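Exercise 3.2. Students should predict the tertiary structure of the chain below and write it as structure tokens, then compare their answer with the key that follows.

Predict this chain's 3D structure.
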Amino acid sequence: MPSSEAPPSPAPPTTRARALDAAIDLVGTAGVRALTHARVDERAGLPRGSTSNWFRTRAALLAGVTDELAARDLAGLEAAPDPRTPDELVDVLCAWFAHATGPDLVATTARLAVFLEASHDPDLRERATRGRTALAGWAVPVLARLGAADPQAAFAAVAAAAEGLLLHAVARRDPADPRPTLTSAVRGALAGAGRER
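Answer key:
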């Protein structure tokens, strides 16, 4: 017979996880300049000094934010559908875009803010590069399977289109439907693959 006991409740988030969630929210709503240990403690509802126990410096805190965002992206990639046709790939990209500009908008804004910060911070740049490598690790084999003559170049083209759309959607609140552009990017990346699009 099935047990009548309720399933155990999930463990509450750790102090570190609460601090990172609050830091991402802070960067995504107020920008990188707003990121301080005291503000993170306040936003997370933690005792003063809690965040600095995990991240001793502001640079360490920003690195922690970058790594947490990359970990979330990797988890999303691992759960992503496996597109078998160009149209299915466009569907996956459109679903990602809708999530990134909808329920995940604050985290998306934080990603973009950190990405710009990496332009003059070598440590953040290296961390951002690791995230890009993980994304390529998912996308390049998909594009190769779909027939791209040069899967790396195809990835660069599709990623550039998707990232450009995302930047405008976040920075300008551009409401444009991403599907036509993403469809063109995917078809262009696969052009000459010798199969019907």
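Discussion points: The mean pLDDT is 92. The chain has one domain: 15-189.
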